[in-house]
Specification:
Low-confidence stretches: 1-25, 206-210
CATH superfamily: LURP1-related
Helix content: under 10%
Number of domains: 1
Shape: globular
CATH class: Mainly Beta
Radius of gyration: 16 Å
CATH architecture: Beta Barrel
Structural class: mainly beta
Number of helices: 2
Largest sheet: 12 strands, antiparallel, barrel
Mean pLDDT: 79
Strand order of the largest sheet: 1-2-3-4-5-6-7-8-9-10-11-12
Number of strands: 12
Order of helices and strands: HEEEEEEEEEEEEH
């Protein structure tokens, strides 16, 4: 299944916003609808659609709050990124790999642990670097519980954003359905990998709060 009507699967209208087809293509951001549900029966996961209702990404082996391996796939089931929690780490640290082989990590994401301040939520660093003091390439601010987050690059430019989604009549949907807006400078698959890690880091926030 590579095309699904959002009105059938999710009670929302198709967005009229345009989107680029790949990272860096065109000048318009990619607007995705993230549905926290697997297409497979009795599986936890994510299903992600573009603004035309086409299936873009899927995750079928998601374990909320778990330490297992998570695979982000495209619409045809091809592995795009493998996500693993870093073992023997004092911090909540996750590593993202290209494809389905857990070698040569692309980057790592570390949860912000300073109790004196609540922002940023997490730091994204180049492969092999998890210390926030070593020039993170991205920082995430906001509230994942409220589905209101922004990913900033090293120049404080927003490259991706999580927003609450409204259904027909302007009714705000629950936290299991939300928007992921990705600027052309960022690969949408990498942005979705960050969403998956945020959900793991803030598993206690999985129930949507108003």
């Amino acid at each position: 299944m590579t095309k699904v009507s959002p009105e059938t699967i999710i009670p929302v209208g198709v967005s009229s916003e345009k989107q680029g087809r790949s990272s860096g293509a065109g000048k318009n951001p990619v607007v995705l609808t993230v549905w926290k549900k697997s297409l497979l029966f009795n599986c936890d996961g994510f299903t992600v659609y573009d603004s035309n209702g086409n299936l873009v990404f899927r995750v079928d082996n998601y374990v909320p709050g778990g330490n297992g391996e998570i695979v982000l796939m495209d619409a045809n089931g091809r592995s795009l990124h493998t996500i693993r929690r870093k073992r023997l780490s004092l911090s909540d640290n996750w590593v993202v790999y290209d494809g389905e082989t857990a070698v040569n990590p692309m980057f790592s994401m570390t949860k912000h642990m300073n109790l004196l301040t609540t922002k940023p939520l997490a730091y994204i660093s180049s492969a092999g670097i998890s210390n926030k003091n070593k020039n993170p390439i991205y920082e995430i601010e906001g509230s994942y519980a409220q589905r209101c987050c922004i990913v900033n690059d090293e120049r404080r430019r927003g490259v991706a954003e999580i927003r609450r989604k409204e259904g027909m009549g302007g009714v705000v949907l629950g936290g299991d359905v939300f928007r992921l807006i990705v600027e052309p400078s960022m690969d949408p698959s990498l942005a979705m990998a960050l969403v998956i890690i945020l959900d793991q880091m803030f598993a206690h926030s999985r129930r949507f709060r108003t």
